[in-house]
Amino acid sequence: MTNALLEVRGLVKHFAVTRGLAGKKLFVRAVDGVDFAIRAGETLGLVGESGCGKTTAGRLVLRLIEPTAGEVLFEGESLGRLDRRALLARRRSFQIIFQDPFASLNPRMTVAEIVGRPMEIHGIARRAERDDRVAELLEAVGLRRDQLGRYPHEFSGGQRQRIGIARAIATRPRLIVADEPTSALDVSVQAQILNLLRDLQARFGLTYLFISHNIGVIRHISDRVAVMYLGKIVELAAKRALFEQPAHPYTQALLAAVPKTDPRRREAGPVLEGDVPSPVSPPPGCRFHTRCPRAMAVCRNEEPAFRPLADGRQVACHLY
Ligand code: SF4
User: Fold this and answer.
1) Which of 40, 197, 198, 239 has its CB surrounded by the most CB atoms within 10 Å?
2) Is residue 219 within 8 Å of residue 243, measured between CB atoms?
3) pTM for the predicted model, two decimal places
């Protein structure tokens, strides 16, 4: 993709695990060959069931964990080729917002220290000016200047996520990986946080990789959507195309499972049955064939390529 801020090529992450009394070594194929790109200023939603590898993919993008294979390019520069010092300098440009705002904030630090720490690490603000900068950030996320000296337990869940967001934007990053940032919040607060993220995107020119299992949240926030199943992306499309005409049977099943508020729009779609197979030994051929209502003989043996269709979307399915 031209003008890609981030490009991911052939990304793989296998985790070694030992099983049984004999201590047999196995590999969890959490991410198993993933390619995508994100343009500056857009939001790419990454959606799939729990255990599909989307959180691991987000951490690989930020180099919080090392890939088994593949490459992550940020503004055309391969992060894998950077030494420790260069990577630290680069880290200023990409940040993460975590799912659980309470667990991700140090309970013994004040808000000023939590939000100010990344600025000190990256030499953006000295101590003396730190509180002023933090106060500006707090106001940007809908909190108040007089809350600088408070501790995380003094805030509600939604406010704590606002602190997490202030910390993420403290270094003026280009890219933010938002990993289920609203999943731990009350439904009434989720929309406020999503709207805040959109406002900040417009104000600061942010680019998001937005990870969620919640198809409704993905629909609200994304420009394009990548659907992940068992360590692979099975469909990647513009939001409208994906939601109006899902191509991959897994995408169709995910959308069919979402309750419709308008019963007239309840279209008949395949219902997703059974559990996601183990990522230790994914099914051969198409990984979705054990649950796919349209599976054919070829699907059991031959892995479908992830290829572009005429309308610009990419799909991995033998039907196309
Ligand atoms: Fe279903 Fe076959 Fe397509 Fe896989 S390749 S999604 S099994 S039709």
Assistant:
1) 197
2) yes
3) 0.92
